[in-house]
Amino acid sequence: MSWDIRALGLLQAEPPTPLIDFPVRAAGIRLLLKDESAQPTGSLRHRHARALFRQAVLDGLLAEGTTVVEATGGNAAVSQAWYARRLGLPYIAIMPGTRADGRARPVEELGGECRFVTPPVAIYDAARQVEGHFLDQFGRAAEHDLAAELFAQVRPDWVVVGAGTGATSATLGRWRRDHAGGPRVAVADPENSAYFPGWTLDAPDYATGMPSRIEGIGRPRMEPGFRPDLVDLVIPVPDAASVAAARHIREVTGLPVGGSSGTALWAALELVERMRERGESGTVVSVLGDAHERHLATCHDDGWAAAKGLDERPHGERLGRISSAGG
Predict the structure, then answer these.
(1) What angle in degrees, to the nearest 10, is found between the helix axes of 45-58 and 167-178?
(2) pTM score, two decimals?
(3) Which residues contact residue 18 at a Cβ distance below 8 angstroms, ignoring those fewer than 6 apart?
(4) Residue-by-residue pLDDT tens, the chain, 327 positions
(5) What is the Cα–Cα distance from 289 to 217, expressed in whole angstroms?
(6) What is the CATH number that goes with domain 46-140?
(7) Surface-to-core class of residue 9, CB atoms within 10 Å of its CB (0-12 exposed, 13-18 middle, 19+ buried)
(8) Is 313 exposed, middle or buried (0-12, 13-18, 19+ CB in 10 A)?
(9) How far is the CA of 243 from the CAs of 165, 275, 311, in angstroms?
(10) Residue 11 exposure: Cα atoms within 13 Å on the Cβ side
């Protein structure tokens, strides 16, 4: 049996992640959370990692002993380290800034190596200089299997997701294009990100030059993996609203989600409100990107929010009016 066949056997899809009913004050409208925190590595990045490794194997870019390299500081590194370990491959994550044990430890526990680089923008050049295969999640943005799995579970009218590499929105949009009657796709975009203005202005080279404060989503430029032609709507979301919505998800479900899940929920509730005002009925799915105890020290912490200048209270009051869990 060849290495390639064994590798592809290890890269089969995991069991479907669950859908969670989320309460809203809108008759005839159902809001569901697609809980990607149930992935083996705890985030939506698990799907993208599998797709990147699978494509690299099919393209002949990986062989036994090949060092796998990525430039990333978040969930992607954990998911990629998990797959590298399953394939018996060395893995190096080039992370921005100075060493932070909270980011490095989960990767190192999976056998990966973390190298920290300053300035942060230098991580991409540093990754290309390492001998091995650079996965390049932003440059390749391989599409994954979320759409097929989700639409086997439910047939929604809208699916809402945040955008980092753009792979998830492209996956969903391509499924809609190729299947008559598929759901519309909305991207929830935080402050400082280029996706909303770039999509609105039809400017594929749009850049803000500013980093997102919401972990995992938002980019300072339009990334190659983001496909504006496969997206029906991009909804800008204030960062303070993302924080409020992340806390609201935790109140309702008990899951300590990250800010990206809050961003997607806020945008989904915007859609629910628009549907209610038009007298429409239907189903909206919001993708819950991850949930981890580390988020308790960020978007769920008042001190962290205050230090970032984020006052989530007005947005929390609005959530209480929209969600039937708000009292």
Answers:
(1) 80
(2) 0.93
(3) 35, 38
(4) 456 666 666 667 789 999 999 999 899 999 999 999 999 999 999 999 999 998 999 888 998 899 999 999 889 999 999 999 999 999 999 999 898 888 899 999 999 999 999 988 899 999 999 999 999 998 876 778 899 999 999 999 999 999 999 999 999 999 999 988 789 999 999 999 999 999 999 999 999 989 899 999 999 999 999 999 999 999 999 999 999 999 999 999 999 999 999 999 999 999 999 999 999 999 999 999 999 999 999 999 999 999 999 999 999 888 887 776 544
(5) 10
(6) 3.40.50.1100
(7) exposed
(8) exposed
(9) 21, 24, 9
(10) 26
What is residue 41's DSSP assignment?
T
| Residues contacting 142, CB < 8 A, separation 6+ | 48, 51, 52, 54, 55, 167
Question: Are 144 and 168 a contacting pair, CB within 8 Å?
Answer: yes
- Residues found in the chain: 327
SS3 at position 295: helix
Q: Which among 253, 264, 265, 247 has a CA at the least distance from the CA of 310?
A: 247
Domain boundaries, the chain: 3-43+143-321, 46-140
Cβ contacts of 201 within 8 Å, gap of 6 or more: none
- Domain 3-43+143-321's class? alpha beta
CA–CA separation, 129 vs 20, rounded Å? 43
Return the residue matching tokens 């066949």.
Answer: 5
Q: Which two tokens stand for residue 195?
A: 């996706």
Q: Is the fold of 3-43+143-321 the same as that of 46-140?
A: yes
Residue with tokens 């990767």: 107
